[in-house]
Amino acid sequence: MTENTPSASVDTLQKFAMPLAIVVAGALIAGAVFMNGQKQPVVAGGPQQASVNIKDVKIGPDDPYIGKKDAPVVMAYWSDYQCPFCKAVEVGGIPQIPIEPALPILIKDYVDAGKLKIVFKDFSFLGQDSDTAALYEHAIWQTYPDKFYAWREAMFKAQDDEGDNGFGDEASILALIRTITGLDADKLKNVVAQNKEKYLGLIQADETEAASFGISGTPGFIVGTTLIAGADQPAVFKAAIDAQLK
Known about the structure:
By secondary structure, the protein is of the alpha+beta class. It has helices at about 10-15, 85-90, 100-110, 130-145, 150-160, 170-175, 185-210, 235-245; strands spanning about 65, 75-80, 115-120, 220-225, 225-230.
């Protein structure tokens, strides 16, 4: 097991890179995109655009990651904990987005093999719950980095409707934290309170950086010089990673 890890076609991309605020009967809620402060509404995915390079992505000690610190390939991943397309990529379970979850495969085939480091970036725009989740993300990374991915996976499995419509507020996140062995919910609440302004600055910096690369929604990925803008099949991610391993 490696450090900090748990033990396409264009047609496909366009098919699944849809606006996040869509009607999904029985599962997702249609409606307007929620606004946080001065954040602008954005949509999930979109055409691959302007040239990108992972070397231009700012990666520092405050950015959560899984994999070996010096893995030969790095993938930057912008996400929102309320985003159903992110959930489809991470854990699946959304019938209306019928793709095989890519992250478990990438972890098994590349992260655990020491070939890939996945850096997690924030793009929280679907409501206050999105920001709250991002705050706790940074608190957990700062305090319990070895538990980060277990918490992240649990968060996506618990995800329900977009926006502030159920799971995702501080009380429900703390309740989930209490189910994960080794995490102290009360301590993490204090860490968030003490570092809130710092964390909000990190979140905003991630979103500004995403925009500079032409990423206008979630999920968004950069591997090498490839931009994957939206949820896609595992083969698309593997092709981008394999190109960097040659």
